[in-house]
Design a protein that fits this description.
This protein is of the alpha/beta class. It is built from 11 helices and 29 strands. The strands form 6 sheets. Strands 15, 16, 18, 19, 21, 23, 25, 26, 27 and 28 form a 10-stranded mixed β-sheet that branches. Strand 2 and strand 3 form a beta hairpin. The longest helix is centred in the N-terminal third of the chain and has 10 residues.
Length: about 425
C-alpha cells in the first residue's frame, strides 16, 4: 500500500449539518463523545497501511488543522503524513473549489509529485470501518481504470441514492441518480456477482455508490484534463467514463452510514449505545479508530442513574439521570437534571469551582447543564451553557426552526444548541 495516495474530500460548507458547521469544517464535527468525523477515514487508511493522506477542505478549517496536527504524527523514518490542503485562489485559478473533482484538479500538480500508482478518493462524512487494501487489490486484480466501492441496498433505500448496473464480470455499465418508478426497476442487478449470498441478493437487488474511488494515477489526470469543466466525480466524471474505461465495482457488505445531515448524525451517534451489539463499534482492537490523546482524568459520578449511554472521560455528573445518551469529554451535569435521547458534545476546557461561583454571582451561566434542567432529543454543542430549570423538549413538536438569536436551531424535530451559546435559567424550548 506504499504506492497509494489517499485524498479525503472534506466537503463544502456543510449546510446540511448546520449549525454544527457554523464555526468548524464538516470533518471536524465531534463524534461519539471524543472523536471527530475525520478520524474515521484517516484511521481506516492507517489500519490499511496507507499513510500518505491529504485532506481537502475550504470552510472553517482552523480546528480541523489543529486536530490533525496534534493527533497524527508519524515517525521521521517513514513517508507518512496527514496534511490539510485548503482551497486557495491563485493567478491561474481565482475560484474556490466548485465540487469534488474540481478540488482534486486544483491540487493535482501536488499529487502528481508523489511516486504512486493509485489515488484513493474518500469522503470525510461517512461512518464505517473498511480495509482499503482489499479494495485496492481488487482494483489491481481486475486491471481497472477506476474502481468504485458500492453497498447493496433494498427497494426502500434505493430511490434516495445514486445507483449503478454491472455486467457479469462486475464492470459498471450504467448509472442513475435517485431513480423512481420504472427507471428504478431497470437498475436492478444480480448482486451475487459481487459476492452476496442468494438470500441477501434477493433482499438487496440494487447497488449504490459510497462515493469512494480508486483511480489509476494517469487515468485521473487524463480525465480531469479531458473534462475540464466537470466539477463532480459522482455526477459527471465517472458516468462519462463508463463507456470507454474499465470501471469495476467493489462490494462493501457491512455497516456504512452517510452522516451528512443533522438527523443522520444524531441517529448514528445514539445508535452507538445499543446492546448487545451496536451497528458500528469503537471497541475493535484490530482496527481501532484513532483520535487526539488528551490525558483527561476519569469521569466522576455522584449518585447518578445512567442507562443505555456512553460517557466520555473527564466528565463530572451530580445526582442526575442520563438515559440513551452520549456525553462527550468534560461534560458537566448538575443535580436534578435529566438528559434523555441526547448527544452532549462536552467542553474544550474546564471551569474551576471559583470560576463557576464567580459566574453565578455575576448572573452568568456556568458551562454545562444546570440543576433541575430537562433535555430530550437534542444535540448540545461544545461549551454550551444550559441554565437552571431549563426545558429543552421541543414542546410544540416543531420540525424546522431557526432561532440563532436565542442560541438554538431545530432540525428534523431535533433541538441543536449552538456552540458557546447560553440558554438562560427557566427557558422552555
Amino acid at each position: 500500500m506504499k504506492r497509494v495516495l489517499a485524498i479525503i474530500l472534506g466537503g463544502g460548507a456543510g449546510t446540511r449539518l448546520y449549525p454544527l458547521t457554523k464555526v468548524r469544517a464538516k470533518p471536524a464535527v465531534p463524534l461519539a463523545g471524543k472523536y471527530r468525523l475525520i478520524d474515521i477515514p484517516v484511521s481506516n487508511c492507517i489500519n490499511s497501511e496507507i499513510v500518505k493522506i491529504y485532506v481537502l477542505t475550504q470552510f472553517n478549517s482552523a480546528s480541523l488543522n489543529r486536530h490533525l496536527a496534534r493527533t497524527y504524527n508519524f515517525s521521521a523514518f517513514q513517508e507518512g503524513f496527514v496534511e490539510v490542503l485548503a482551497a486557495q485562489q491563485t493567478a491561474d485559478n481565482p475560484q474556490w473549489f466548485q465540487g469534488t473533482a474540481d478540488a482534486v484538479r486544483q491540487y493535482l500538480w501536488l499529487f502528481q509529485d508523489w511516486d504512486v500508482d493509485e489515488y484513493l478518493i474518500l469522503s470525510g462524512d461517512h461512518l464505517y470501518r473498511m480495509d482499503y487494501s482489499q479494495f485496492v487489490r481488487r482494483h489491481r486484480e481486475t486491471n481497472a481504470d477506476i474502481t468504485l466501492s458500492v453497498v447493496p441496498v433494498d427497494e426502500k433505500k434505493a430511490p434516495e441514492l445514486g445507483l449503478m448496473k454491472i455486467d457479469g464480470a462486475g464492470r459498471v455499465v450504467d448509472f442513475s441518480e435517485k431513480p423512481k418508478g420504472e427507471a428504478l426497476k431497470q437498475m436492478q442487478v444480480d448482486t451475487t456477482i459481487l459476492g452476496l449470498t442468494p438470500e441477501k441478493a434477493k433482499l438487496n437487488p440494487y447497488i449504490a455508490s459510497m462515493g469512494i474511488y480508486v483511480f489509476k494515477k494517469q487515468v485521473l489526470a487524463d480525465l480531469l484534463a479531458t473534462h475540464g469543466s466537470a466539477t463532480d466525480f459522482g455526477k459527471e466524471i465517472i458516468p462519462a467514463s463508463a463507456s470507454s474505461l474499465n470501471l469495476q465495482a467493489y462490494l462493501f457488505d457491512d455497516y456504512w452510514e452517510d452522516i451528512g445531515t443533522i438527523e443522520a448524525f444524531y441517529d448514528a451517534n445514539l445508535a452507538l449505545t445499543r446492546q448487545p451489539q451496536p451497528p458500528f463499534s469503537f471497541y475493535d482492537e484490530k482496527a481501532p479508530i484513532y483520535t487526539r490523546g488528551r490525558y483527561l482524568p476519569p469521569s466522576k459520578l455522584w449518585n447518578c442513574s445512567i442507562t443505555e449511554s456512553m460517557v466520555g472521560e473527564g466528565c463530572i455528573l451530580k445526582d442526575c439521570r442520563i438515559h440513551h445518551s452520549v456525553l462527550g469529554i468534560r461534560s458537566r451535569v448538575e443535580s436534578g437534571a435529566t438528559v434523555e435521547d441526547t448527544l452532549v458534545m462536552g467542553s474544550d476546557f474546564y471551569e474551576s469551582l471559583p470560576e463557576r461561583e464567580a459566574s453565578l454571582e455575576q448572573g452568568q451561566i456556568p458551562i454545562g447543564i444546570g440543576a433541575g434542567s430537562t433535555i430530550r432529543r437534542a444535540i448540545i454543542d461544545k461549551n454550551a451553557r444550559i441554565g437552571k430549570n431549563v426545558m429543552i423538549i421541543n414542546k410544540e413538536n416543531i420540525e424546522e426552526a431557526n432561532r440563532e438569536e436565542l442560541g438554538f436551531y431545530i432540525r428534523s424535530g431535533i433541538v441543536v444548541v449552538i456552540k458557546n451559546r447560553a440558554i438562560p435559567d427557566g427557558t422552555v424550548i
